[in-house]
Amino acid sequence: MSSYLKASATPLVEAHDAVLLDLDGVVYRGALAVEHAADAIAAAAAAGSQPVYVTNNAGRPPQVVADQLTGLGIPTDPAHVMTSSLAAAAMLAVDLPRGSTVLCVGGPGLAQAMEAQGFRVVTSADERPDAVAQGYGPEVGWAQLTEAAYAVGQGARYVATNLDATLPTERGMAVGNGSLVAAVVNATGVRPTSSGKPEAGIFHEAAGLVGSTTPIVVGDRLDTDLAGARAAGMPGLHVLTGVSQSYDLLTALPHERPDLLAIDLRGLLQTHPEVVRDGDVWRSGTAGARVVDADLVLLRDGVPVAIDEATTITLDELRAACCAAWAAADAGTPAVLVRRALDVVEG
After folding, report:
1. Would you please indicate which residues are annotated as catalytic (active-site) residues?
2. Which residues pair with 49 in a beta bridge?
3. Per its UniProt record, what Gene3D superfamilies does this chain match (predicted)?
C-alpha cells in the first residue's frame, strides 16, 4: 500500500463514525450548496457517520451557521457546529476558572462562546481582564484593537481564533483575522495562541461534540483543513470543490498532504483504491505516473504523457501523480510543474 495515500475497501462512512466538514468550498460556496453536498451528507448521516461542521469563522454563532445550512437543504442544529470561537473558549477554560474576565475583540459569536463557557465578557482593558480573545468581525477597528493592546500589555493571556491573513470574498481577498491580530502583535510584541485550523484542538473539540472515536476530516484547503487533520492525527479527505486544486496537491508539503482524494463529497460514499509502487511507477487502478528527469509523466495505456500537456486527468491519475510527485520531492528531486490547476474528471 502507498505510504502517501490510504486505501479503503469500504465506503468511508462505514469506517468513520463522524465526518468533520469544512464549510466554504466543501459544503457551500457563498449562498449556494456545493453540488452533491446535501445528498452526500444525508447519506453519511443515514449510514451512522455524524456530520459536524468545523469553521474558522469566529463571528457567527453556531445557531446562525445551523440556520444557513438548514436553509440550503442540509438540516442541522447548533450542537453539530464547531467554530473557532468555541475552540478558543475551550482552550481558555483549561487554565482559567469560570467567572474569569475575557475582553472579546470580534463578532457576536466570540462573546457568546465565552459566555457559554462561563466567562464574563468585558469591553475595556480598564477592567483588567484575565484574557483577550480576538476573532474576525467586520466591525473590528482601532478602538477594539487598542483595548486589546492595552490588556495584553497589562499581562492578559492572548488567544486568537485563527491567524488567516486573508478572507475570501466575492470581491477578492479581504483583510482576515490574522492581519488584524498583526496590529496588536506589532503594538505589544506578544503573539497569541491560535485555537482555529490548522491547530489540532478544534478538530478534537469537534469530534467530542458527538462522542466520535473514529472521525475523518474533509476539507478543500491544504494549509488549514488538511494540515489540521494531520496535526490532530485524523485521516483527511481532500475534495476538489474549493481552494486547493491539482497543482497545490502535487506540490503539497508533507504536513499538508491529504490521506484521501475525491472530486466532491460523494467521495465519502465511495471506496478508495490502493496506490501501489512498481519500480519508479506509481499505479492507481489502470492509471500510472512517474517522475523522469524532473518531469511528471502520466502513463496512459502504457504511453507516456507529459502532465503539462494534459487538459484533463482522471482522479486515479491524480492519485498516482500525487504519490509520484511526493516521492520525488521527498527524495530531493521534485518535479518541475506548470503552475496551473489541471481539470480533474471522474473516471
Report:
1. 22, 24
2. none
3. HAD superfamily/HAD-like
